[in-house]
Amino acid sequence: MNPLVKNILAVLAGIVVGSIVNGGIITAGGALIPLPSGVDGNAMEGLVAGMPLFEPKHFLMPFLAHALGTLVGAFVAAYIAASRKMTFALVVGALFMLGGIYMVYQLPSPMWFNALDLIVAYIPMAYLGGRLATAKI
Fold it and tell me: Where are the alpha helices (DSSP H) in 33-84?
């Protein structure tokens, strides 16, 4: 397969698999840590309105979803890529980070969560995913 095509497919696969992991954790998280009473988690407006009711425990699953989704997506991209594996892992991390930045503007979360999420969940996890995929075992 052409290396360029393989690298593009690696990034696309990383985004798809990482998004599935992210969504799965968010979905499962609602069962493990239910939203505060009266908060509608099915609409952005409901989340925005209910944000003052959130406790720190309610931010655990979104953080894990972002971090693990990025980690797995970056791993997949680096594993599949024909060349520059770490670069493509970091590309996946950067794209997920753009999504995280967008969510900061859409959903007014506490500043401590925004900082933790944007600093730890994306680029460091993408780097770790790239390292794990390229590790010599």
Answer: 44-50, 60-80
pTM above 0.90, yes or no: yes
78 and 18 in contact (C-beta within 8 Å)? no
pLDDT 10s digits, 39-76 = 887 888 888 888 888 989 999 999 999 999 999 999 99
In degrees, rounded to 5, the angle at the alpha carbon of residue 120 between the alpha carbons of residues 80 and 98 is: 65
Distance, CA of 101 to CA of 93 (rounded, Å): 12
- For the beta carbon of residue 7, count every other beta carbon within 10 angstroms: 21
* CA distance linking residue 61 with residue 25, whole number of Å: 7
Phi, psi of 108 (to 5 degrees): -75, 85
Residues 6+ away with beta carbon under 8 Å from 101: 118
